[in-house]
Write a structure and sequence with these properties.
The chain is an alpha/beta fold and about 140 residues long. It contains four helices and five strands. It has a single domain, classed as Rossmann fold (3-Layer(aba) Sandwich). The strands form two sheets. It has a three-stranded parallel sheet with strand order 1-2-3. It has a two-stranded antiparallel sheet with strand order 4-5.
Length: about 140
């Protein structure tokens, strides 16, 4: 397995395209903070741009990390996670991904929640599940 960290900042789009064109799977990190998510999913937002680039460049497998769950209101909000999952699913379906084949994971990179082991701060998250042609997978 080869990992490539393609920065999300607009100044590094060329680097992102180079890295993404070599990828089999993309991990799309979406900020859960109020205002941050909305900016990313807006018409010219980076979340949309990165998902579209990944699909256009042939990356057929996608994982969505919903980051900054510690900064939701209230912190680690299941409702906010589900709201983001619904909106991102709607968008990625429009560009060609099958949302049922995409794993969504709520995380807090800053605090390490759900990064290596299940977080006690999100007991409502029972793991991810996807459905693909090959069958179901979960983790």
């Amino acid at each position: 397995v080869t990992f490539i960290d393609a920065p999300g900042h607009r100044d590094f789009i060329k680097n992102m395209i180079t890295g993404t064109s070599q990828a089999d799977c993309a991990v799309l990190i979406v900020a859960a903070g109020t205002g941050e998510f909305e900016a990313g999913i807006s018409k010219n937002g980076q979340t949309r741009e990165h998902a579209l680039l990944a699909f256009t460049l042939g990356v057929k497998q996608l994982i969505v990390g919903v980051n900054k769950m510690d900064s939701t209101e209230p912190p680690y909000s299941e409702n906010r996670f589900e709201e983001i999952k619904k909106e991102v699913s709607s968008y990625i379906k429009k560009i060609g991904y099958n949302p049922t084949a995409v794993a969504f994971v709520p995380i807090s990179g800053w605090h390490g929640d759900n990064m290596l082991e299940p977080s006690t701060k999100m007991p409502w998250f029972k793991g991810w599940m996807v459905e693909r042609k090959e069958g179901k997978a979960e983790g």
